[in-house]
Design goal:
Shape of chain A: globular
Structural class of chain B: alpha+beta
Largest interface: A-B, 21 and 20 residues
Order of helices and strands of chain B: EEEHEEEE
Strand content of chain A: under 5%
Low-confidence stretches of chain A: none
Number of helices of chain B: 1
Largest sheet of chain B: 5 strands, mixed
Helix content of chain B: 10-25%
Oligomer: heterodimer
Mean pLDDT of chain A: 94
Distance between the termini of chain A: 36 Å
Mean pLDDT of chain B: 94
Radius of gyration of chain A: 18 Å
Structural class of chain A: mainly alpha
Number of helices of chain A: 12
Shape of chain B: globular
């Protein structure tokens, strides 16, 4: 499946496959950070963008609820992944980065509302109270993606876990259009549209304003330490594994949205 | 039952892999188990929605992010869009206009 989706659907001999793989993983003069960003754009924002991202250009109530219901499971895993990185790293700047990220995403504090709380408020504004939202078990694709991220966080080098985790924040990076993305993460008019609840706009705005910076800082740290520690290939491979899980997870958001739609 | 892929995997056209499995009475080639499960689920859903007892052919266009398909049985046609989850189960299915 990986060969089909990333290299070629035509079976090739070992020699040609070697060349294809080498070209795929070649970092080149642009550096690892650019390679990671390029792979992310190709997978989620290419000629056939992920269907969830397509749906987010003009999200329905069901789409936003599907997002909220599955995403709270994602954010719970986020905490575990960041904590594992902090537990395993010996670099102070990484620890400070992870602490800041954790507080933004889950803990809140210093006058800021966490993404987790904003998510719950969005769902409430859409008619699903937090008690009801918190009662939803994750869909199988969400559950499997979470298990994959937990396995990365606990079983791989902290630097690989960092790439696997914070690389995903590229999804809301406002600068991806300049990197070739065919669409933004969500419709550009949403943040100013009264068609969407203030709580929905607050949640999306927070991600839009913070995730890009998180990704930039995180991947800059990853690229620097990958070269220092000789872990470039490992980071690339684990990052790609994480993208596969993220792809399935985004599909789960859409599957949940379809469930909600059928209930309406 | 046949698909529009004369060569390679019956669902996606890939020539990797070495899996043969019966679908609707025909031994078809697949690149992987997921593609086999997807095509089997697709055929079952088409028959359920159309009431057809057999399917002669399914033409597929697209990729794992979503496919536009046309099933045929004799002169009858049934067009639909379909998407699968990570286990090969149908995540979204919609009949589309002829």
């Amino acid at each position: 499946m990986w060969l089909n989706r990333n290299l070629t659907k035509r079976q090739t001999d070992v020699g040609q496959l070697t060349e294809l793989l080498a070209a795929f993983f070649e970092v080149g003069d642009d550096g690892l950070e650019t390679w990671l960003k390029r792979r992310f754009v190709a997978k989620f924002f290419g000629a056939r963008p992920h269907p969830f991202i397509a749906a987010m250009q003009r999200p329905s109530r069901a789409t936003l609820l599907g997002y909220a219901i599955e995403h709270r499971h994602f954010l719970r895993q986020w905490v575990r992944s960041c904590a594992q990185i902090m537990a395993n790293t010996d670099r102070d700047d990484v620890i400070r980065y992870e602490l800041d990220n954790l507080n933004t995403e889950f803990g809140g504090g210093r006058g800021a509302t966490s993404h987790y709380e904003l998510l719950l408020r969005m769902a409430e504004s859409l008619g699903v109270g937090r008690e009801r939202l918190l009662a939803y078990e994750p869909l199988p694709d969400t559950r499997d993606a979470i298990a994959a991220w937990q396995a990365i966080a606990t079983g791989e080098h902290w630097l690989e876990a960092m790439a696997a985790t914070h690389g995903l924040e590229l999804v809301a990076h406002p600068g991806l259009r300049a990197s070739g993305a065919c669409l933004p993460y969500f419709g550009p008019g949403i943040l100013a549209s009264e068609e969407y609840s203030p709580e929905t706009r607050a949640f999306l705005r927070e991600g839009f304003e913070s995730d890009g910076a998180h990704a930039d800082t995180g991947l800059r740290l990853v690229a620097g330490y990958a070269n220092e520690l000789g872990l470039v290939a490992q980071v690339q491979a684990t990052f790609l594994r994480s993208l596969d899980s993220f792809h399935r997870y985004l599909s789960a958001r859409l599957a949940r949205a379809n469930q909600i739609e059928n209930e309406l | 039952m046949k698909t529009n892929f004369d060569e390679g995997c019956a669902l996606c056209g890939s020539t990797w892999g070495d899996l043969w499995a019966p679908i609707e009475g025909e031994q078809l080639f697949f690149c992987c188990r997921i593609c086999e499960v997807q095509l089997r689920n697709m055929a079952q859903e088409v028959k359920r929605r159309t009431g057809w007892s057999t399917i002669d052919r399914i033409d597929l266009d697209g990729d794992f992010t979503g496919r536009e398909c046309e099933a045929r049985q004799g002169e009858r046609k049934f067009r639909f869009s379909i998407r699968f989850d990570g286990q090969g189960e149908i995540a979204a299915f919609q009949e589309t206009a002829a």
